Amino acid sequence: MTITPEELAAYADGELSGAQLDEIELAIAADPSLVRKVKEHRALRASLLAHFAPIVDQPVPDRLTRMLSGQEERDSPENEISENVVSFVPARERHEAKKAIPRWGWVVVPAIAASLALVLMPRGGSETSGFAAPQLALALDQQLVATQPADADTRILLSFRSKDGDLCRAFSGAEAGGIACRVEGGWRLRNVLQGSQTAAGEYRQAGTDDAALLAMVQDMADGPALDSDQEATAKQDGWQ
Amino acid sequence: MLELLPRLRRFAIGLTGHPSDGDDLCQMTIERALTNRQKWQEGTRLDSWMYRIMRNIWIDETRSRTRRSQTFVHEEAGFAVGAGGGQEAQVELGHVGRAMERLPDDQREAVLLVMVEGYAYKEAAEIVGCPVGTLNSRLVRGRDALMAMLGETSPGEAT
User: Fold this and answer.
1) From CA B10, how far away is CA B116, in angstroms rounded?
2) Could you tell me which chain B residue has the CA closest to the CA of A199?
3) Hey, are the CB atoms on B2 and A36 less than 8 Å from each other?
């Protein structure tokens, strides 16, 4: 059967179900070029998420929060129109809103998690016991997600505390990406993925498969990723 | 609504391609939402409602600016944002941001809603006010363009 680009994208986004899903999975299983395309879709999503995620962690400008807090003051219980406001954002809705914005939403964005669960993409990454080479170690020591240059050779995707209690950082570069955890003696590499073929072009391409990395992070992490302040503090403390 | 702000800002900055324009758009959105809050139906998603308001304002804005997009898109300005805000972290729009800016508005909003904000096609289509199939094809065109610009496409393949 012929898979349209629309169907393939919908598949990569976890939008399909039932017979349609089965059909596409069959077609993909028979065609390596489709596998690659699905990977590209997911890599693109990961780049977009990584690109826009930091905005959510930034403090919201005062002028915006003031518009809403001023509103709440005016509509305090003494005020006659208070009922409107109370019903406007009921507690339930707040709760839902909160759930909808997990701190590390870009790691656990349901669509990504769902699409990864389909395991088209091999959960690659061998456990290794090596330590990061000096250049990589330098990036791991110095770079912060919020401030690293956009064209850094190695990009830090996020930092998190592992279930073992170590501070770990997921990184992505042209040649390899992976997860490194700070232990005595340096940055121990926990998972390493080979980067995909890199074309030297005008635009940087996502080297390794960021989505696969983020899935591994999810398995290893003991809670949400660090926000930019926590990460800065961790750096000051020497990533202990 | 306060808790939605960080996400609304992200969508606004993604749409406008520029943080200070994004914050202006956010401000207009909040104003309109507060003015029209009686129109929000309890039980429906507040976030979708706010996103819809925002994209409608944005569409109106871009139309009325009749493509004076240079005032909105500071290509040379380096996209270094947050200048002057002591605590404010810098946003480097970088390559991804520049590629996003090159997309037509309808493709960019589809890409943002689904791939960044994580909406299902159906929800995104409701926000935009178009059929799901239309959204799906805009999304594909937007993605293909992005992949081509970002070099993530693999040439010479028949689907």
Assistant:
1) 9
2) B151
3) no
Contacts of A87 in chain B (CB under 8 A): 42
Within 8 A of B46 by CB-CB distance, chain A residues are 89, 93, 97
Residue A70, judged by CB atoms within 10 A of its CB (0-12, 13-18, 19+), counts as exposed
The one-digit pLDDT tens for each residue of chain B (159 residues) are 778 899 999 999 999 888 888 999 999 999 999 998 888 887 788 899 999 999 999 988 887 765 554 454 444 444 444 333 333 333 445 788 888 988 999 999 999 999 999 999 999 999 999 999 999 999 999 999 998 888 744 443 433
B159 and A4 within 8 Å at the Cβ level: the answer is: yes
| Single pTM value for the model | 0.53
Q: Is B156 left (phi over 0), alpha (psi -120 to 50) or beta?
A: left
Give me the long-range contacts of B45-49 (CB less than 8 A, separation at least 24): B45/A96, B45/B123, B46/A89, B46/A93, B46/A97, B46/B1, B46/B4, B47/A97, B47/A100, B47/B4, B47/B7, B48/B119, B48/B123, B48/B126, B48/B127
**What is the ipTM for the molecules in this complex?**
0.75
Residues of B in contact with A2 (CB under 8 A): 159
Distance between CA atoms of B146 and A46, rounded to whole angstroms?
Answer: 13
CB contact, 8 Å: B121 with chain A? yes
Backbone φ and ψ for A171, nearest 5 degrees, come out as -130, 160
Q: With an 8 Å Cβ cutoff, are A90 and B42 in contact?
A: yes
Query: Is the Cβ–Cβ distance between A182 and A166 less than 8 Å?
Result: yes
Place of tokens 């997911």: A42
Nearest CA in chain A to B1: A89
Q: Tell me if B149 and A40 make a contact (CB, 8 A cut-off).
A: no
Pairing of strands A186-194, A176-183: antiparallel
Quote the minimal CA–CA distance from B103 to chain A in Å.
14
Contacts of A59 in chain B (CB under 8 A): 87-88
